UniProtKB/TrEMBL annotation:
Signal peptide: none annotated. Keywords: ATP-binding, Nucleotide-binding, Transferase, Ubl conjugation pathway. Residues 7-159 form the UBC core domain. The active site is at C98. This is UBC core domain-containing protein. Belongs to the ubiquitin-conjugating enzyme family. One of its GO terms (molecular function) is ATP binding.
């Protein structure tokens, strides 16, 4: 796997170690220094093979709050480059992801790699490409505000 990694400032020692160890086939960890918000990076990947998304490409933006690792990183599908967020019952059109480990079930033991794999797993098990109920209202109301400010209700383990 090719790991194209260019750093911004503001990463902690732990985050730098996680970034250095990141090795997931078909995922590329990268950052464009010209538009690099402090403490954030991007992961590009193709949809999981044998899934509804196998022919699509995606870009995740990962931003580490100052309280990381005690709180989860902010992870969204970054649509600013023209790549879409997937149509999925747990992914909003503004890129926000409703995933328990990005909320109540976050643990400091989780790594960038484990969270990215969880997002890929979310895509690989999807049976129908649809937006979440209330997507339009939520996305318009919240806009590009951090998903860490949203109180998620995790009640659907079937997708």
């Amino acid at each position: 796997m090719s790991n194209n990694l260019e750093f911004c400032s503001s990463f902690t020692r732990r985050q730098l170690k996680e970034i250095a160890k990141f090795s997931v086939p078909n995922f590329t960890l990268d950052q464009n220094p010209t538009d690099c918000p402090p403490g954030s990076l991007r992961v590009s990947f193709s949809g999981p093979s044998d899934s509804l998304y196998s022919t699509e490409n995606f870009l995740l933006r990962i931003r580490f709050p100052t309280t990381h690792p005690f709180t989860s990183p902010e992870i969204i599908f970054d649509t600013s480059t023209g790549l879409p967020s997937p149509f999925h019952p747990h992914i909003y059109s503004n890129g926000h992801i409703c995933l328990s480990i990005l909320g109540d079930e976050w643990s400091p033991a989780l790594t960038i790699q484990s969270v990215v794999l969880s997002v890929a797993s979310l895509l690989s098990t999807c049976a129908e490409k649809v937006r979440p109920e209330g997507d339009t209202i939520y996305s318009e109301r919240v806009g590009d505000r951090s998903p860490l400010l949203t109180s998620w209700l995790f009640d659907d383990d079937t997708v």
